Amino acid sequence: MMKLDVIDRKILGALQDNGRLSNVELAERVGLSPSPCLRRVRMLEDAGMITRYVALLDQKAVGLPVSVFISIKLERQQEDDLDSFEAEVRKYPEVLECYLMTGTRDYLLRVATRDLAAYERFLKTKLTRVENVASIESSFALKQVKYTNSLPLETVGV
Q1: Torsion angle defined by CA atoms of residues 89, 102, 157 and 146, in that order, rounded to the nearest 10 degrees
Q2: In what order do the strands lie in the sheet with 107-113?
Q3: Which distant-in-sequence residues (6+ apart) come within 8 Å of 130 by Cβ?
Q4: Could you tell me the sign of the dihedral formed by the alpha carbons of 86, 87, 88, 94, in that order?
Q5: Sites in the chain below the pLDDT cut of 50
Q6: CB within 8 A of 28, min separation 6: which ones?
Q7: What whole-number distance in Å separates Cα of residue 104 and Cα of residue 76?
Q8: What's the count of helices (H) and strands (E) in the chain, helices before strands?
Q9: For the whole model, what pTM was predicted?
Q10: Tell me: the pLDDT tens digits for 66-105?
């Protein structure tokens, strides 16, 4: 893993806030001239710290206001079974996140849908048809209290 210095953390923080910054704007924000700034950004990309640049959409504004957290328990937890479940879930655009978990449940999914009927269709036509699923437990989010995709870079040591 590449060791981050103060400038690297400033670059990453600025790009987390606004991935559309021009190299000149980014350089000004972090106190570098454009050429060394660009070299550092490319180094961070090559090191795998910057994986891609995206536009973040507002889930409600695009018509997907329902967030559901789904706990999945599998019948078997052998490597092939886990791989098979993960491959299947990756196919579903409704699934925004999927985590292999410790504890009583095997997976935690975050799903976005238009409404309860759309969630019911997703559940009946997709999730319940996945082989090796023993149980599904759904929890509906009432309100999003905090959401960020920005990592807490200030907690990363130099």
Answers
A1: 60
A2: 95-100, 107-113, 66-74, 133-140
A3: 85, 88, 89
A4: positive
A5: none
A6: none
A7: 13
A8: 5, 4
A9: 0.88
A10: 999 999 999 999 999 999 999 999 999 999 999 999 999 9
Query: What residue ranges in 75-115 does DSSP mark as E strands?
Result: 95-100, 107-113
| Rama region for 58: left / alpha / beta (φ>0; ψ in -120 to 50; rest) | beta
Give residue for tokens 């973040």.
56
What's CA 17's distance to the chain center, in Å? 16
Q: How far apart are CA 154 and CA 18, in angstroms?
A: 17
